[in-house]
User: Fold 7-carboxy-7-deazaguanine synthase from Aerosakkonema funiforme FACHB-1375.
Amino acid sequence: MATQIAAPPKARLIEVFSAIQGEGMNVGTRQIFIRFALCDLRCHFCDSAHTWSVPEVCQIEKTPGWRDFETHPNPVMLTDLLSWVERQNQPGLHDSISLTGGEPLLSAPFLVQFLPEVRSLTDLPIYLETGGHRPEQLSQLLPYLDSIGMDIKLPSVSGENRWQAHQEFLQLCGNSQLEVFVKIIISSQTNPAELEQAGELVASVNPAIPIFLQPVTALPGEVLVVVPAPDRVLEWQALMKRFVKQVRVIPQTHKMMNQL
Ligand code: SF4
Assistant:
């Protein structure tokens, strides 16, 4: 019987481009963004609903930062994505490569093959931006990552309840040697008891893991999403500092700078 050779996995992409990271630990640094299609969560505050499904074509920037996008049909070949990353990677320009979405861990079967190739191409650090709820897929990718920014979704703000998965996910991060931070979106709806629960969760893994509180960006006409009052933000930062050492408040700075 003939041996069946598995077809190489393909990526379902939204876009590839060069930009300034606007959130979390890497804020202000220059990254090559690889944005994967699909997400299995439905956060109330999501401003990336266009990533929930796979578009027919993806947008690929030709020159880093020029926004001179060309379109390619989805899904894309591993070798094509590799060549687009190589084209973006001009000497000295970027600080890291960001795997983002959507939920990039839904592309784990592709990433397991893609990331070792990226490693052989460049020594740029590889940063994973994730909802923090897919520990099984994370464990497959840990050998190829340098840093992880994971969300803890507060049910009162996001409508998602993923405590158990967040706990397992952060424990895996804590057991690794990788740099990790936690991002929590806060809004006027934030339940402080959930913030405490998140603080306890992070502290139980490692109180040295930084937490970034990110006031939600109001969406036009969206009643569920209201920016928190300034005094509440001060209160909640103080509350979180009872659990972990570093609690920083940073809004989405790329939107202030009119970046992608
Ligand atoms: S995890 Fe991100 S992309 Fe997915 S629904 Fe939530 S905010 Fe949107």
Observations:
- The mean pLDDT is 94.
